[in-house]
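agent: user wants the full assembly modeled, not chains individually. Plan: 1) parse entity lines 2) check alphabet per entity 3) run joint structure prediction 4) return tokens. Steps 1-2 passed, two entities, 293 residues total. Proceeding.
--- entities ---
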Amino acid sequence: MAFGRQDNKSNDGADMKIVKFTTMVQEVDRYLLASGGRSGGVFIFGKYKVYYSQILKRYNADQFIAVMENIFNPGKSGPVDLIDEMTVIQTFKEMKNKTEKKYTEYYRLIFWLLFAAAVNDEIYNNELPSIADLAYCLEFNEKMMGDWCVVVDYLLSGNHLDENSNLSLESPEGIAFFLHRT
Amino acid sequence: MAKRVKVIPVVRDKNLKSNKGRPTYRTLKSATIQLNDLQKAEAVKLFNMMKNILVNTVLDVDINSKKIQFMAERILGHIEFDIDAGSRPLEKVVDASNIRGGIQKYLKYLS
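--- prediction returned ---
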């Protein structure tokens, strides 16, 4: 009986961690969306969403990755769609007509991919080269990549992200995206 | 005006592991060629084509290494393409950061 109570306590603790993690991810994403002038919602990302969805789906045995999948890809239980070559070419055509809002989506995508890599070692070990390739295609430079990692580390250290966060960011893109300052 | 460029097409090879055990890159072929202005304009188009190949790889579409090699060879001799100058420094920045295993830090914060 006593063992059972301890077990329940332990489960409650694990559940509470999941709840806190879920809230943190939702709040951070809502804040990041605000930098692109959007009020909230699921990813728009364009065609890159498929890549992100694949990552989350492939590693969703990890409970924290499963939480992220549920937030960013709610109700998607079927197989993830594949992208054909023409779709990729179309994506690059879209990239030529860049707008600030699209940049925000690219920044957000790389941020959550790095965050997922920090949460799950398998993603880090297996997918980091792909994430770096994608960041390169989306015109990230080394300073930006460093800033994105600083913010991932900042959040996972239990800090709250807002305009007044005590972050030393080096890139103008990072300052605008994470601190909403121009 | 002609310009010498070194052509280094590389692909990510899942069978080739880095020191840290992660998949890394291998060079397919390399060559040094001369380009005139017209060829350089063409090279930009071909560079974009190579980027598409790269993104296909990134997106994990069913594209095998033979196809990548075939496409890389088609553009060989026309463009400058060196991933080492692009994404690998970004990867190194991430490796140098503290994000690996970050969830442990978060769980410690919660407990």
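agent: reporting back. Residues 1-6, 37-44, 77-89 of chain A have pLDDT under 50 and may be disordered. The CA atoms of residues 50 and 81 of chain A lie 7 Å apart.
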